[in-house]
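Record 1 of the preview.
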Amino acid sequence: MSEISNETLGLILVGLIFLSAFFSSSETGLMAINRVRLQHQAAEGSPAANRILRLLERPDRLIGLILIGNNFVNILASAIATVLAVRIFGDAGVAIATGALTLVILIFAEVTPKTFAALHPERIATPSSLILTPLLKLTYPLVWTTNLLSNSLLRLLKINPETSTRDRLTKDELRTLMMQSGHRIPARRHGMLLSILDLERVQVDEIMVPRSEIIGLDLADDMNELIDQLRSTQHTRLPVFNEDIEALVGVLHARTALKLLDDLPPQTDEHLFKERLKELCEETYFVPLSAPLHTQLFNFQKERERLAMVVDEYGDIQGLVTIDDILEEIVGEFTTDHIQETSPDVHPQDDGTVIIDGSATVRDLNRALKWELSTDGPRTLSGWLIEQLEFIPETPLGLAHGPYRFEVLAIQDNRIRSVKAWSETDPDRSDTE
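->
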């Protein structure tokens, strides 16, 4: 090395610093690159994505190659810098070379290239893979030997380095990914995807039609009343029962019922008519209260059912759920977006407040009013308010919960029947105080 001029050694030193920056940025870029996007690009036939994925299949070998190259050029740069500094400054050159080279490598070969690679991993990983792929083949014996020693130490720690380190995304991580990429997806599709992920968090009892609101055919009613109800119903399927919903006969398809009405003779015996209704009823499908929506959607598909009666642990009917109810959790209401139509229990007032029926569900309120009330507790507003108050009110009173304000207007049978509510953050609400 003594025969090499200072100018040549200086050029070699600069080249080694560039190589060190290349290895540092390559390591950060390849480790920080978006694996999901890579796999998507590879599926579309991108050669660069496939090349990068092959390198990432064995990260131990890739890191081994990069560290071997980086350490080699850094040590060689240190030796050359020391020789140059001793020639120029004498014995003090060793200390000068150590301090100066540390600062240069830290700024130009470590911090700057790694920061750039972390911000723009694809711009670094793609060209780096062109160099690292053949370099890995050329230095494979050295990389293999190095990894053999390091992997032996890892196995002593009960870590298998040959196992792929590409973790599968959990549902929560996938949800976070969806939230971060929301601006790249149309808002409606973005909401649908998040709703699909949320299906397992929601149980059947949170979206079912409560028992008290089930619309069905009571065989104890007069025949003419039953016929009028069949002709005017807006529902495709109707539960059929005797006086009480617990005395359930089955489920009647409206299309079948209309065919019965078309063929109905002028003078039909009421008993025979009701017996005919019973014959046309399909067997009732029952589901538990606690069934998650994603499970129930699969069961509806598996059993080829569209309506189910919801029962508690004692087998008592608590409500009714349809496949349409679950689909609305994904795609939203099938009606328009006006509050009056999406939530018939919510009645907007001129001053910006709303009058709400106590039986309205908290989930429906959040959806209709864009509120963020907790859905972990009771499902109805009445139950939610009683839980917040910790007692059943006997007279009208008010409640403040965060930015939300509630005035209990009517109470009946230990239940809150109607509530006046508003949000302090709603700019449309006029000051009524």
